[in-house]
Design brief:
alpha/beta, Urease, subunit C, domain 1, 5-stranded parallel β-sheet, about 450 residues, binds (4S)-2,6-dioxohexahydropyrimidine-4-carboxylic acid, TIM Barrel, globular
């Protein structure tokens, strides 16, 4: 990875296929970047006093945005640090990420929020926006100081990892969050229905003798969340949708004009519960991988816009923590460096077009969470991802910048990846395309 500052330099991205759903742009253009911002998008910009990137045959998009990442710092630096996570992000094509609050200490106070922002600036890779906790210590009992968190820079609130079981508490939190204009991201899970569950409840959990988690555990809470969004008139965002039933509930809620948005992750539309058959702890995740019917439901939700965005839920754990019996392993799958090629499969399958995919991975995340970026409008920061849509290679966890290795896509042959990532006009990542081990054309 090369990090070199070229602020105030002129950079021209030449002849790339520009896809910017925010402006309805879909065609071959040049982009002129100056002073870290986009100065011009035209058919043929003369090359004068500028560094030039030849992007012919490549796709040029607004930098990808992942609003659901676990960076593990402070407290779990053996799993990931803000620096390793931010570097993994740009290697995967993400120029902006939002990090969840389940660190130690929890991000339920200004000191932690400010610490995260400081570490992110020092890392100098992706832009990092913290998500604050809804409740102190993620315990679901006492409200976090929402106004102070907002002042320190959080962009949303979530107890992700833990569901908020007390509906009255969530109602009050939504009312406060509304006052401060912060959406609440819900980890929808009724733990009472699956107290010991470690995988999807069904035929395979019975065969393996593992306690299961039924779809209903998610759907009950999605329904509850929708009703509370309706009651309070405030915005709930449903995290990591895994079940077809949840998609249907969200579809109906949207049709009734309720303020609900939703995300899913690559593993929920490309893997089923079969992935845990060999007790592979790298496929253990919360909510769990489900069935073919759920995948169909999620793809339909992506197609018709019920599911607004795709996130990674990048959840790194140390390899030794995952090298234990399935029931004891922590839940989580990493995604920053595998998400884009897995999502590109949706294009090959005809589920989404390129503009629709970029809308869900950049434009809509920015709109929903009020983040800068997500479009390449003039005078906006030059956060740009250049994608080679044809490159064929094997995903190799040993080459990841993330400290995590818990990726069930290891060794998958895929097509397409980010080859250059630009943040504020600086090239912060350039893929080494000469590497014969990981890449074949
Ligand atoms: O599998 C998961 N891991 N799901 C979550 O919601 C939390 C995450 C983590 O923090 O490891």
């Amino acid at each position: 990875m090369k990090y070199h500052s070229q602020r105030n330099k002129r950079l021209i991205i030449k002849s790339g296929h520009l896809i910017d759903p925010g402006q309805g742009l879909d065609g071959v253009f040049d982009i002129l970047i100056e002073g870290g911002v986009i100065e011009a998008i035209e058919r043929d910009i003369p090359v004068e006093y500028a560094e030039v990137i030849d992007a012919s045959g490549k796709i040029v998009v607004p930098g990808l945005i992942d609003v659901h990442t676990h960076l593990r710092e402070p407290g779990f630096e053996h799993k990931e640090t803000i620096e390793t996570g931010a570097k993994a992000a740009v290697a995967g094509g993400f120029t902006t990420i939002c990090c969840m609050a389940n660190t130690n200490p929890v991000n339920d106070n200004q000191e932690v929020t400010r610490f995260i922002l400081k570490q992110a600036r020092a890392a100098g890779a992706a832009k990092v926006y913290p998500i604050g906790a809804v409740s102190k210590g993620l315990k679901g009992e006492e409200m976090a100081p929402i106004g102070e968190l907002k002042e320190a820079g959080v962009v949303a609130l979530s107890d992700d990892g833990n569901p908020i079981t007390n509906s009255s508490f969530l109602r009050r939190a939504l009312e406060y969050a509304r006052y401060f204009g912060l959406p609440i991201i819900s980890h929808a899970e009724d733990k009472m229905l699956s107290p010991d569950g470690v995988m999807n409840e069904g035929k395979i959990s019975t065969q393996l003798g593992l306690p299961g988690i039924p779809n209903t555990a998610e759907e009950i809470m999605v329904f509850r969340d929708i009703k509370l969004a309706e009651l309070t008139g405030w915005h709930i965002h449903i995290a990591h949708v895994s079940s077809a039933g949840s998609v249907e509930l969200i579809r109906q809620a949207k049709a009734r004009g309720i303020r609900v948005t939703a995300e899913t992750c690559p593993h929920y539309f490309s893997l089923t519960e079969e992935a845990v058959k060999e007790f592979d702890t790298n496929a253990k995740v919360s909510p769990p991988l489900r069935t073919k019917d759920d995948i169909e439901g999620i793809k339909n939700g992506l197609r018709d816009g019920t599911i607004d965005i795709i996130v990674t839920d990048h959840a790194p754990h140390h390899p030794l923590e995952k090298a234990v019996p399935f029931e004891q392993a922590p839940s989580g799958i990493i995604g920053l460096e595998s998400s884009l090629p897995i999502c590109i499969r949706l294009i090959e399958e005809g589920v989404l077009s390129w503009p629709e995919l970029i809308r869900k991975m950049s434009y809509m995340p920015a709109c929903i969470f009020g983040l800068p970026g997500g479009t390449l409008k003039l005078r906006r920061p030059a956060d740009i991802t250049i994608i080679d849509p044809k490159i064929r290679y094997r995903i190799d966890v040993n080459r990841f910048y993330s400290k995590g290795r818990n990726c069930p896509f290891h060794n998958w042959e895929v097509i397409g990846r980010a080859i250059i990532t630009i943040v504020d006009g600086n090239i912060v990542y350039k893929a080494d395309l000469r590497d014969p081990l990981s890449l074949t054309y």
